[in-house]
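Q: Hi! First time doing this. I have a protein sequence and I read that you can turn it into a structure. Is that right? Here it is:
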Amino acid sequence: MANNDPDSVLHPGLVPAGQALEIVLEGAGPGGTERVPVAEAAFRVLADDLASLRTQPPFDASAMDGYAVRHSDIAELPANLQIIGQSAAGHPFSSVVAPGQAVRIFTGAPVPDGADTVVIQENTEAKDDTVTVTSETGAGRNIRKAGLDFREGDILIPRGSQLLPHTLALAASMNHASLTVYRRPKVFVITTGDELVLPGNALRPGQIIASNSLALMALAREAGADAMDLGIAPDTREALSRIVDKAMAAGADLIVTSGGASVGDHDLVKPVLEELGFTFSFVKVAMRPGKPVIFAWRDVGGKRVRLLGLPGNPVSSLVASSLFVRPLIRVLGGHPAEAARPIPAVLGGPMPANDQRQDHVRATARRLENGTLEVAPFSVQDSSMLATLQKSDCLIVRPPFAPEAGAGDSVSVLLLRPI
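A: Yes, that's right. Below is the predicted 3D structure, encoded as structure tokens:
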């Protein structure tokens, strides 16, 4: 039965979820930089301020299709001018526009010497080699001056910027062929359990499919990691120790284990890490699902190797990875530290009071006519049920000791997909 007394003491060793994330992120940061081609830098984090190597536009350019003229020639209308050539992007007109002359010009093309105004083609009538300007155009109109966008030496992309598609386009326009970015963190995923077999295999009695590693690898890569799956570790100390050693020898920044994080006879992660000299920050978190979460670390060759041990139940593993693994990978890759961001919603029905753990309740969601997000929790929240998670639109985040709530009451949710 839930304990609703806010003054109740948490179970010894049970760390609040928010504090657990602070512990995980404390002291974490990128582990180095590397130079990569600009075409391969998408979504990486820039490690140095980026200054432009050129001025853009590098010349006065036409902003419209029309005619480049001397404004003094069109002071009185209509004005008849001799067409002496054309200027197109990549094919500039190389002579000077003299009084009484005009050059056919196209968007993006250099404005020829002598001209100071572009008259749009809609305000002209052309016949053979003569153009008649029929409408007034202000001096200097329809010209993008050299350096309008940026100038050589301007710092346009500061260190720490994520290289989004438009940021990459700017870097390329600045004439950078390669960029210095923070190195992708090396993340190794280890699944534990004699009962696990890979997808596609026949199951013997007592066996189940190993699914957590696939989700963890996808999450790690989406967060920006250089991730590797080290496979399934049998339930022996020797096997698990050997695989963890392999990850450390390969330069792991983060090791993520799935399963074996609790206190049962076959839960070997904690004792193996103790034997390997890891220091523990916490071994249980006040959250549901996902209470048995381990965070430990060890310094190897001057480098800190961090380890997050997650529960084996699929939903517990996925919730814990979203709350802890993803934010840590992001910070190790140079992104700012941030937690998953809940958004406001209202309940579509009642929810019972909560105990000392932070609940993450699978729910459907819909937008009401007024734009409010209404959520409805599933009646069964067993942490082994992946199909329910697939049907869910969000997780309702219930803080410790939250009182009973009813339809229309405000709650916070983490979206699992756009609504």
